[in-house]
Amino acid sequence: MDLLHLLRSVFCLHRKGLNGLNPQQLQLLVVSSVGVGLLTCYMLFKKRVAKTIPMGEGWWGRGEKQLSEDTKIYPFRVETSEAEIQDLNRRIDQTRYTEPLEDSRFHYGFSSVYLKKVVSYWRNQFDWKKQVEVLNKYPHFKTKIEGLDVHFIRVSPEQREGQRVVPLMLVHGWPGSFFEFYKILPLLTERQDDVAFEVICPSIPGYGYSEAPHKMGFNTMDAARVFLKLMERLGFTEFYLQGGDWGSLIVTNMAQMKPDCVKGLHLNMLAVTKGGAGLVISLLLGRYLPFLVGMTREDVRRLYPYFEKNVYEMLRESGYLHIQATKPDTAGCGVNDSPVGLAAYILEKFSTWTDKQNRDLEDGGLERKYSLDDLLTNVMIYWTTGSIVSSMRFYKENLKSDPQNRIDSKTGIYVPMGFAAFPHELLHCPKAWARWRFKDLRSYSYMSSGGHFAAFEEPKLLADDFVQFVRKVESKKK
């Protein structure tokens, strides 16, 4: 029986289900899974995978590349002014709202009924000057790398006797910012046990207080190279990395470029889009015979029904991605000009990506997990820096060609890796799938609650999982 015929037979059995299978059909199911699994393993081992990504060079500043660059690190403070606040209030007061459909809640996007409540709080109670002081709680810096002013915060712990200090970089995604990490920072830097972390949180170029690239083509590998240069400039030769959303891909690229510098890589988002025949067989058999393909009952619960959770659901949620990956500057005109439009565009993601069931709620469930002060502070970082369009362009730069043909998709990851699988993340990645790409998986955790914005929503859960991952890595090295 050839492979194509075998796959067709397995697919038919998958559609039929296990009820009513005769012994011969069941035998086919088992033999096919083992046979194709062995074939897939052979193909994976046979395929040569690059060990590292070349660092390369880049220049993203205005004009021609300069012969020399200022490598000094300068203190930076977030500031505001009365003129900035008055302009914001004027624009808010001139907002034109659209009447929502009856009982539409968040199924059509951000409910304008609840939006008016958020905007009323923003206009009359939110204190941006106070939140600026909150932002300045931690030391901010800027430095020039590849022609860009790169912003970051650096939080050093007060080292206690017998305590080791471990360097760590945290990288955000869209539509977040470095501010997502403000709740997790004290859990990492103010620890009472034998280890604490010195944390670097940069802003991706084009996001917040990091200068936007002035040339086309800046993608995650370029961001990774910039951040590796930042860590080198700060004097770190070995460090840990953690990220979600775009941050997960950036830190993975960092580990691919300089694996000798990365002691461990911890992610809270992972999308496996490449697995060949192994992925097909895993999907077909996983629902009924998960143990044959390395899945657990929890994987089955999170993955299936597969098309509903991974295809139709993503179609409902990925409209923004298609816009930003094709014509970001066109769509960006509106949200860059209207603060209320910007808030609706960003906060809708904090609703649905925290839990898809929030679409059924009149208020989108936003205040169940977050405060309006925290949410609006993140919006204000985008608004006051005018960075929403440049942040949207990051999709265009990363998705203008087939991601599977990029060098990073063909390069293995060999550093110790840990993964925190949050139940309401947009896509679920079983441990068996993660092993296809990450060759040294040390830790895999099914988190009890939380969604896409893990550090913002569940800082203690994420911090605890990261610390236990570090302990596993460090104990194995001794």
TrEMBL record:
Q: Does the keyword section mention Cell membrane?
A: no
GO MF annotation, one: cis-stilbene-oxide hydrolase activity
- InterPro entries with a match to the protein in the record: AB_hydrolase_fold, Epox_hydrolase-like, Epoxide_hydro_N, Epoxide_hydrolase
One Gene Ontology cellular component term attached to this UniProt record is: endoplasmic reticulum membrane
Give the transmembrane ranges. Answer: 26-45
The UniProt entry's GO biological process terms, in alphabetical order, are:
lipid metabolic process; response to toxic substance
- Give the active-site positions: 245, 395, 452
Q: Does the keyword Transferase apply?
A: no
Recite the UniProt keywords alphabetically: Aromatic hydrocarbons catabolism, Detoxification, Endoplasmic reticulum, Hydrolase, Lipid metabolism, Membrane, Methylation, Microsome, Transmembrane, Transmembrane helix
Query: Which reaction equations make up its catalytic activity?
Result: 2-(5Z,8Z,11Z,14Z-eicosatetraenoyl)-glycerol + H2O = glycerol + (5Z,8Z,11Z,14Z)-eicosatetraenoate + H(+); cis-stilbene oxide + H2O = (1R,2R)-hydrobenzoin; 11,12-epoxy-(5Z,8Z,14Z)-eicosatrienoate + H2O = 11,12-dihydroxy-(5Z,8Z,14Z)-eicosatrienoate; 1-(4-methoxyphenyl)-N-methyl-N-[(3-methyloxetan-3-yl)methyl]methanamine + H2O = 2-{[(4-methoxybenzyl)(methyl)amino]methyl}-2-methylpropane-1,3-diol
Q: Which locations, inside or outside the cell, does it occupy?
A: Endoplasmic reticulum membrane; Microsome membrane
The Epoxide hydrolase N-terminal domain is annotated at 74-181
Q: How does it sit in the membrane?
A: Single-pass type III membrane protein
EC assignment: 3.3.2.9
Q: Where is this protein primarily located?
A: endoplasmic reticulum
**Protein role:** Biotransformation enzyme that catalyzes the hydrolysis of arene and aliphatic epoxides to less reactive and more water soluble dihydrodiols by the trans addition of water.
Which family, according to UniProt? Belongs to the peptidase S33 family.
Please report the name of this protein according to its UniProt entry.
Answer: Epoxide hydrolase
What does the record give as the organism's lineage?
Eukaryota, Metazoa, Chordata, Craniata, Vertebrata
